[in-house]
Structures are given as structure tokens and as C-alpha cells.
User: Which sequence fits this backbone?
């Protein structure tokens, strides 16, 4: 009854714009009430223990809104099945989020409108907070915690050390309204509304073969574990992608900031016509280890025709338009019109 908080809220660190207004627990309950028929009226019944004996089943709707991101609305149904036996034993099956099933056993008693349960756990019988039994038309049995502080106590047991604040109350129709602020990686604030637990009698309770032998609670959460494992795997893959992207960005930043491309001055030695100088083992005395593979582009050239220095990223020599960037390129001599290979003097000048 207290598992009204989705187990995946530990991952709820959400940012961005929202188009859904924040709703109070009362507004969440009101939106669900419009979808349902009015609850059967409460009737005054003086019931005995014999009235409780049998098998009962009922479902609740839980609607929660994540206040950090109001667009996130979680709606689920949880079902409880109780078997109350005449010898004072009971069995309970709770079906909750992600097909999770919890089966428990214990002792029960009923007096003065209060249903008391003792669950068998850790080798002993542990008393649970008592339920107030409210009868509705059609012999529907509503279970509502007798003390509101019991809700907060049980809630704290499920989230030890995580609760910043928690406010719970029942409205006039028996809807459980809650506002809670949990802290995981960041603050997770939620409002929720839970419909009343109305149980209808299915018939006599059939004990399991061999009778009710007390066992520890059995939790079948295979689907939930598989879902969480899938989320963890996806999150891990996204983390790896993010790390790769960050590594690539860091590498690019290192390359961009390593050595800016600078033109060679007129008085410096000019590289051969190949035009690429390695800054590796042989040419960089500071890189004795020889681990660098970064190459520095030399874009400054001296025209072998007219002797002018120019940048090959431009149109070539401003006087004779040669040589253009590239190996094996040819240029036309501006003086005699003879076409020759770039990087050398025009053969006609030696004539």
C-alpha cells in the first residue's frame, strides 16, 4: 500500500521546458475522479470477524507528477488480494509496478472496526499499522490506515535517508494525497494521488496444499530487474558515447592549440618544393621521444622566377602568378610566355 513511488525516480534528473502545469495532489485526484464513477456510499455496518473471513481483492490507481519536470506523469495500477482464514492466518499478494509481485503471510484479527495484521518476516511476527475498515454499499471493504503518521513512518522505511520532506493526508473521499521531496543525485519532488483500496469478496479462501505454512515474504521482481538492467545498460552506452565525444573534442582542442600555422619570413630558409615540414623526431629537438605525428604546413614560398616572397594560399606570385600550390603544377612565364614546371626558373631565362 505504501509502494506508491515509482522505483525509477532515482533516475529522474530532468531538465528542459515544460508545457504541463504543476498540479497539486488534490488536482491529480480530481482528474482521476472525473474518469471514475462515484464511490459507493459508506454504510453503517456492525461487522464481526466472520464477515472478514474469505478472499478479497481490490485495485488502486496511482497518479504521480514529477515537479522537476511536470510533463512527466506516471500512472499505474496496483492490486491487492487477501485471504483471511478462520484460524487467524492470512495470505496477501501485492501486484505493483513492472509486474512486481510480493507474497506475504501472517496473522490477523478484527475488532471495533480495526483490522490488525502481523506479517511473518525475519523469523518473527512483525506488527503492521492497523487498518480502519470502512464498509460501502455492496459489501465493499475499504482499508484505510488508522493513523496518518503511520503513512509517513512506513514511507520512511522504504526511502531511508532520502527524505527531505513528506506530507500525506486523506481527503473526504478516502483518496491518499502525498507530496514528497527525495534526494538522490539531486532533489526529486513529486505530488501523487492514490485512489481508495476497495476490496470485494470473491468467495471462500482456499488454503494452499498442506495448509498455510509461514514463510518469508517472496518478491518476484524479474520484470523490474530486467527493466532496470536495460536502463543501466543504455545509460552505460550513453556514457561511453559521451566519453568518446569528450575525448575527441579534447584531442581536437590539443591539435588546434599545438602550433599555429605561421608563414615563413623572408630571411628564413625555404623548404623544398614539397612544402611540408614534419615537427616529429628529426626536426623538433624538444620532441626527443618522437611521439608527435603533428605536421606543420609551410605556406610561404619564394618565386624562383622573380625572387618575390608570397603566400601560396593566395593566387600565387603577385607578379608572375606562379607557382600555384601542388606538386607537378605548371606556370606560364610572364616575361617570355614559356610554360614550365612550378618551383624552378623559366628555362628561357638561361638562354
Assistant:
Amino acid at each position: 500500500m505504501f509502494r506508491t513511488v515509482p522505483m525509477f525516480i532515482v533516475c529522474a534528473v530532468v531538465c528542459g521546458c515544460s508545457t504541463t502545469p504543476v498540479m497539486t495532489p488534490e488536482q491529480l485526484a480530481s482528474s482521476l475522479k472525473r474518469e471514475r464513477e462515484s464511490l459507493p456510499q459508506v454504510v453503517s455496518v456492525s461487522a464481526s470477524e466472520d464477515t472478514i473471513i474469505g478472499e478479497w481483492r481490490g485495485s488502486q490507481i496511482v497518479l504521480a507528477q514529477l515537479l522537476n519536470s511536470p510533463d512527466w506523469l506516471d500512472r499505474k495500477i496496483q492490486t491487492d488480494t487477501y485471504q483471511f482464514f478462520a484460524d487467524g492466518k492470512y495470505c496477501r499478494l501485492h501486484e505493483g509496478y513492472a509486474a512486481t509481485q510480493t507474497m506475504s503471510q501472517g496473522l490477523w484479527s478484527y475488532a471495533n472496526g480495526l483490522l490488525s495484521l502481523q506479517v511473518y518476516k525475519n523469523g518473527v511476527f512483525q506488527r503492521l499499522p492497523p487498518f480502519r475498515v470502512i464498509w460501502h454499499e455492496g459489501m465493499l471493504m475499504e482499508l484505510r490506515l488508522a493513523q496518518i503518521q503511520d503513512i509517513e513512518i512506513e514511507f520512511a522505511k522504504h526511502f531511508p535517508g532520502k527524505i527531505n520532506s513528506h506530507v500525506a493526508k486523506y481527503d473526504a473521499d478516502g483518496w491518499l494525497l502525498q507530496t514528497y521531496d527525495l534526494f538522490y543525485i539531486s532533489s526529486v519532488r513529486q505530488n501523487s494521488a492514490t485512489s481508495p483500496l476497495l476490496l470485494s469478496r470473491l468467495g471462500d479462501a482456499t488454503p494452499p496444499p498442506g495448509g498455510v505454512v509461514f514463510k518469508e515474504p517472496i518478491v518476484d521482481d524479474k520484470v523490474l530487474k530486467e527493466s532496470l538492467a536495460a536502463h543501466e545498460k543504455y545509460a552505460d552506452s550513453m556514457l561511453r558515447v559521451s566519453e568518446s565525444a569528450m575525448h575527441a573534442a579534447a584531442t581536437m582542442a590539443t591539435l588546434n592549440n599545438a602550433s599555429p600555422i605561421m608563414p615563413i619570413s623572408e630571411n628564413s630558409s625555404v623548404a623544398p618544393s614539397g612544402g611540408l615540414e614534419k615537427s616529429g623526431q628529426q626536426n623538433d629537438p624538444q620532441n626527443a621521444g618522437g611521439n608527435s605525428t603533428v605536421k606543420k604546413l609551410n605556406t610561404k614560398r619564394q618565386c624562383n622566377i622573380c625572387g618575390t616572397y608570397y603566400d601560396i594560399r593566395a593566387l600565387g606570385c603577385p607578379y608572375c602568378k606562379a607557382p600555384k600550390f601542388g606538386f607537378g603544377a605548371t606556370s606560364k612565364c610572364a616575361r617570355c610566355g614559356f610554360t614550365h614546371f612550378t618551383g624552378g626558373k623559366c628555362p628561357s631565362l638561361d638562354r
Observations:
- The longest strand covers residues 54-66.
- The radius of gyration is 40 Å.
- The first helix runs from residue 25 to 33.
- The helical segments are 25-33, 49-52, 148-158, 222-258.
